[in-house]
Amino acid sequence: VGVLASLSSAGTTLLMIHFLRRLAAIPAGVAAAPARFRWSFLAVALAAVAVPWGLYLAVLGGTAGDALASSSLWPALWPVLLGAVLAAALWRWGGVLPRVPEGDIAVPVAQDAIRLAGAAGAALERLDGVLRRWPVAVASLLGIAVILAGLMLAGQ
Questions:
Q1: What is the full per-residue pLDDT of the chain (156 aa) written as tens digits?
Q2: Residue pair 99/108 in contact by the 8 Å Cβ criterion
Q3: Which of 17, 69, 126, 152 pairs with 132 at a CA distance of 20 to 30 A?
Q4: What gap in Å lies between CA 51 and CA 85, rounded to an integer?
Q5: Is 80 exposed, middle or buried (CB count within 10 Å of its CB: 0-12, 13-18, 19+)?
Q6: Which residues in the chain belong to E strands, given as ranges?
Q7: If phi over 0 gives left and psi between -120 and 50 gives alpha, with beta otherwise, what is residue 16?
Q8: Residue 46: helix, strand or coil by DSSP?
């Protein structure tokens, strides 16, 4: 669980750095968010830093010196550093990665699923056409009757 939490932290760092880069790339002519949204964003950012420190000091009874000791800092910082290195690699070599079309990442998956559903629907339509023929339907009904009769006889 600890390794997964650390990898999640690295991924979160990567996503946040990517978000900040995308935010910085917004052209100057785009309208800014209203002040009430900016203040709420800053309040959440401040809480994201202050609440864990407050919990550490209040609940665990630790001190700020304990939290800033080198033995405590490295286990907490290596996932952030890994995320930053991955963000730098993405920035440097991101041009060679395949491009996802505009919109949701589900677009390519949805297109494949639609194609697969169409093929499955056509196959089921052909199967239904075969099963609707009288000889096949009668043979199927006779087979089901024989199976049910055999089950009834076996139950006695």
A1: 888 998 999 999 999 998 888 888 887 777 777 777 778 888 888 998 888 888 878 887 778 787 778 887 888 889 999 999 999 998 888 778 777 666 666 676 777 888 899 999 999 999 888 877 778 788 888 999 999 999 999 886
A2: no
A3: 152
A4: 26
A5: middle
A6: none
A7: alpha
A8: helix
